[in-house]
Design a protein that fits this description.
The chain contains five helices and eight strands, in the order ααβββαβββββαα. By secondary structure, the protein is an alpha+beta fold. Strand 7 and strand 8 (148-151) form a beta hairpin.
Amino acid sequence: MSDFVSELTSLLNRNCKENGSGTPDFILAEYLFGCLTHFNSAVNRREAWYGREQDQRFGIPLQETGMTFQRWRKKPVVVEAVQWDGTAEGATPIINWILENDGTANYYGPGKWDNGEPRASYIKVQTLEGRMLVSKSDWVIRGIKGGFYPCKPDIFERIYEPVYEPEAMRAERDQKERDRND
C-alpha cells in the first residue's frame, strides 16, 4: 500500500468518515485513491485528444514558452488585523499594537505627509518590504512572520474571513500572549 493510501486511511480513521456505512477505512482510502487515479487518466486522455502536452505533476498544459503557469491557492493561515478609521484616535491603538510587537509606525496628520491628498492622515508602517502608508479604511495586518503591512479593504475582503473561536480558546490565546509579553 502506498504512503498516500496509508495516510488517507489514517485520516479517514481519525475523523470517522465512513458515516455509519461500516466500510473499513482502508477500503474507502483505496476507493478514493482509485478515483483520483482515474480522474488524472481522464484529464490526460482529454488533453491528448486536443493535442496538448501535460505537466505530469499537476495535469496542467505546458506553455509554448517552456514556462509553466500554475494556479495556486493561499494556504489557510490566521493573521491579526484591524481596520483604521482614519482618525488620530483610531491610529493610537494601531500604532501601540505595532510598537508592542517590535514594529515601527508613525502617525501623520492632515498636511503632514504629501501623498496627493493634503487633508488626509496616514500611518507610516515599516514593513519587511520597506515603508508603506496606511490610508483611511485600510486594514493593518500582522503577518505570519510578525511583520505589519497595510491592505486595501477590497483586497482584504477577497482574501480574509473572520476566525470564530470559542471563548475558552480566545481566553487561553490571550493569556499566552500576555505571558509572552511579561
